[in-house]
Task: structure prediction
Amino acid sequence: MSFELPELPYAYDALAPYMSAETLEYHHDKHHNAYVTKGNEILKGLPDMGSTLEEVVVNAHKQNNAGLFNNAGQHWNHKHFWNWMKPNGGGARPGNLDAAITDSFGSYDKFREEFLNAGATQFGSGWCWLVINKEGRLEVTKTPNGENPLIFGQTAILGCDVWEHSYYIDYRNARPKYLEAFVDNLVNWEYVAELFEKGPLKIAA
Ligand code: MN3
Result:
């Protein structure tokens, strides 16, 4: 298999003022593209690492292939990240997902607080997540660099990129402001609900 850079699902200026066209041009065309290109270069020199991106992520991790793991993980993360946002995002969650959030966190506001806190306290580059954990419940987590919850047997249904390349042009060092804008104005809850309804990813690795 090989990786392919997906098109953004909206125009470069569609998420302004919360995320600028300049940020999306750099983030998608340069950063995500580099993970795809580098990942493909590494894959070319290896025996079969799996038939899906998820299998490649998990196998690269099992084999301690840090180069492949970082690039494959970041490809997975970004592929979904573009879909985790939409113009006029945020707002109400579809019913089943909203009920599950309330069940797992007590309330949406409690989830929001945990998610913002996870993103703000991830030291250095990384991601904060809403995952389906091994017990089938929703949980907020954070990971460094390109690490993906898949390697812990968790399925990410929402993630926010807190690498500086994701917010520095628009927010400078104000990561908490970026996280608030992401949750309140950008999240595509329909896409989160779609992943939630699909349930835990089963990986044949
Ligand atoms: Mn990124």
